[in-house]
């Protein structure tokens, strides 16, 4: 399995959406479909975790820059980064397993682009719900 990924570069792996390692380590050419439940689950979860960090990291950096002089709120970036990590670990695991379970029960194969859409979609839904919750309190 390792020699397959050493043949192509790291950037090409990311752009080709070949981030999910195969369970049996077979070399299937350019086929990036995910057949097994664990492959589908891992692919969706990986994209949900990465996109959550991409959403939360700029917010944490902005809060570091603006709240560094505040007595109590200077620790807010830590809470923002924790939510960026803990959200996908607890909620993303369950929703990714549910998505992979539906695909497995339907007997369908998931392509890597679908894993990207479902993973980023989970993070985007969390982002939208967070903004709507804040607006409701104003």
Q: What global shape is seen?
A: elongated
The first-to-last residue Cα distance is 53 Å
| Main structural class | mainly alpha
Continuous helix count: 5
Following the backbone from N to C, one meets helices and strands in this order, namely HHHHH
Provide the β-strand percentage band: under 5%
Average of per-residue pLDDT values: 81
Largest sheet: none
The gyration radius over C-alpha positions equals 18 Å
- Which parts are unreliable, with pLDDT below 50 for 5 consecutive residues or more? none
* Approximate helicity band: over 70%
Number of strands: 0
Question: How would you describe this protein?
Answer:
The chain is mostly helical and 138 residues long. The chain contains five helices and no strands. The chain is elongated.
Task: Sum this structure up briefly.
The protein is an all-alpha fold and 138 residues long. The chain has five helices and no strands. 72% of the residues lie in helices and 0% in strands.
What descriptive keywords fit this protein?
138 residues; mainly alpha; 5 helices
Map the helices and strands.
Elements: H1 2-7, H2 10-15, H3 37-67, H4 76-106, H5 112-137
Helix pairs in contact: 3-4, 3-5, 4-5
């Amino acid at each position: 399995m390792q020699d397959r990924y050493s043949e192509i570069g790291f950037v090409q792996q990311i752009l080709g959406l070949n981030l999910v390692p195969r369970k049996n380590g077979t070399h299937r050419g350019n086929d990036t479909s995910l057949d097994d439940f664990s492959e589908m689950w891992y692919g969706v979860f990986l994209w949900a975790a990465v996109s959550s960090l991409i959403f939360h990291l700029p917010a944490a950096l902005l809060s570091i820059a603006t709240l560094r002089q505040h007595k109590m709120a200077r620790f807010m970036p830590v809470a923002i980064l924790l939510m960026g990590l803990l959200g996908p670990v607890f909620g993303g695991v369950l929703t990714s397993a549910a998505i992979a379970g539906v695909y497995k029960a339907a007997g369908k194969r998931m392509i890597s682009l679908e894993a990207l859409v479902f993973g980023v979609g989970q993070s985007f839904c969390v982002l939208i719900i967070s903004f709507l919750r804040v607006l409701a309190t104003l």
